[in-house]
């Protein structure tokens, strides 16, 4: 279990309405069937301690990241902020950039991918399918190559749609499989079970204050991530 002291060093933004945290790979954004301690639990503990609040602490969760993914996660401290942040996500008036380290570079250094994706619930995996398949949803992302090492490629990704495992499925379908992502065809896993996908930055108008928010999340403290972070 991560301590609140560790968490404090990973808080990227905080006010009375929002708290934005840099998630470690392997952390759960919210509870699931495993019953494992979550980042939301840690954030509540931090708020309870810092604010000396008795009883239950409210925490809204307007979006999530997959467990093996790292990077910024937005939580809300009030129900008003939650409803407004949820509307910001729904209306796509928020920009988010992800960084992905892939085993192979794409054929083109930048481009747009549009595919139809369908989720297999039993496998917890999404597949690129024909648009006529039941459950198929149109999915679009934009990508550009940011840097290369001798073995890997750093790709910046921005989403137009927010489908289940969208970046993982679409990059794999393109032939640029994310490092460590066994589910989508990676050659081998990462030692810590992570995949090299990082929620890097976001920009949006604050749901209450109406000020512009621009946040960047440092990459995980791991040699390959540190190499790429220093090369861009």
In short:
With 232 residues, the chain is α+β, with helices and mostly antiparallel strands. 21% of the residues lie in helices and 32% in strands.
Can you tell me about this structure?
With 232 residues, the chain is of the alpha+beta class. It has a single domain, classed as Pseudouridine synthase, CATH 3.30.2350.10. Helix content is 21%, strand content 32%. It has helices spanning 4-8, 39-51, 79-90, 166-174, 223-231, and strands spanning 11-14, 18-23, 70-76, 95-102, 110-120, 125-129, 137-148, 153-159, 197-205, 212-216. Strands 1, 2, 3, 4, 5, 6, 7, 8, 9 and 10 form a ten-stranded mixed β-sheet that branches. Strand 5 (110-120) and strand 6 form a beta hairpin. The chain is globular, with a radius of gyration of 18 Å. It starts with a helix and ends with a helix. The model is unreliable at 1-5 (pLDDT under 50).
- Provide the CATH topology: Pseudouridine synthase
The total count of strands amounts to: 10
Q: Could you describe the largest sheet, including whether it forms a barrel?
A: 10 strands, mixed
| CATH C-level label | Alpha Beta
Layout of SSEs?
Blueprint (H helix, E strand, L loop, with lengths): L3 H5 L2 E4 L3 E6 L15 H13 L18 E7 L2 H12 L4 E8 L7 E11 L4 E5 L7 E12 L4 E7 L6 H9 L22 E9 L6 E5 L6 H9 L1
Parallel strand pairs: 3-9
Antiparallel strand pairs: 1-2, 2-3, 4-8, 4-9, 5-6, 5-7, 7-8, 9-10
List key phrases describing it.
232 residues, alpha+beta, ten-stranded mixed sheet
